[in-house]
Amino acid sequence: MSQEWKEKLKKYYAGNLSDEEVKEVEMEIEKLEVYQELLEEELDDETVRSDNTVKKKAKVSTDLPPKSIDKILKSGIRNARLSLVAYVIMILLLIYPIMTIVSYIYYGWGGKAEDLIDVAIQTVYVTEPNVSLEEMEIEEKVGLFTFDVYMDLYKRVGKSDIKQGDWIVNYQFDQATTPKRNYISESPPNDIPYYDTMKLFHPEARMTNIDGTAWTTLNKLPEGTVAEVYISLEELYAPEKIKEITENLNIEWRWYAIDTGLEAEGKSSDGGYLAPIGYPAQPDPDAWSPYNTFGENEGQFMDSLRFLEQYEQQAVDIAHGKWLDLSERIRYLENNGIRAYGGVLTGPTKEILKLRENKAIRTIHIGEVRLWNW
């Protein structure tokens, strides 16, 4: 140790150094601390005790003012923490893009993303009466082993497609979670349907939600309005025959509720409430739609059910109803054919009112009503 360093160290203890000189001394002391640690790692305890130089440096360390020792310790801890945080951030920055690429590969492999989008689309068409989608308003987003499908839902009221709201269907890997549903319509569906919220009834089913004022309400609505109405029939009809009920009336069927052998009781094989399923009554001019003009809607309905059967749990998680029983329903339809027990129609309010005395009609429920657009 030089004489100059000794003098400076004495002044440091006496507090006679400038701030800049204090910093220089403390930096040298830190270096001594590091040097001492290295020596202690290399030498055994006996050698350390016999080495006068090391003893002197140890004395310098132990003779430091308490405030300086505390400052040095805090500085070391702080630097260690910053280094750890930096390493963690660096690792995350390296892992995130790699995992993102793997996620894209996972959803792109074998058309998985397209299948998951189709599950969401076809679940809507089969389980949501008079609801349609627009291709340009279906978007998807890939996250870290998550896949989101964004859909805007529309209802036909009169001659216009009215936006009902939007759904965000989230898949974690390939398992769906309950969609985030945002509705802007006047009469959104219940989050969880049940017997007391039913609007469509099988001829043999007990009516648990009768709207005794529906016809009176239609009668009171002004002539310049159009309406969406849920129609329950007194018996089952083949799809090609159901239009005869509204023959010569200026109204349009939009969705058929189909008998699958379980609607009379309205219960799944597990005993839970079974919501209606069906398909659009009109072909969709858009080629991307599962009910396009390239085939009959009845056949496309069966194709939808068989496709959804492969992803039944995902479809159940997406749909409002918590049971679908697709295998049993498909077998019934294959053996008995497709017959409707009701559905949804739309048209001028006063034109729909002409069905009041029709003996084929069991009961009705009014959906959306809009000003004239027919």
Automatic annotation (TrEMBL):
Domain Sigma factor regulator N-terminal: 71-161
Keyword flag Glycoprotein: no
Residues covered by the Sigma factor regulator C-terminal domain: 218-368
Pfam families in the record: Sigma_reg_C, Sigma_reg_N
Keyword annotations from UniProtKB, A to Z: Coiled coil, Membrane, Transmembrane, Transmembrane helix
Transmembrane segments: 84-107
Superkingdom of source: Bacteria
Protein name in the entry: Anti-sigma factor
Organism: Oceanobacillus bengalensis
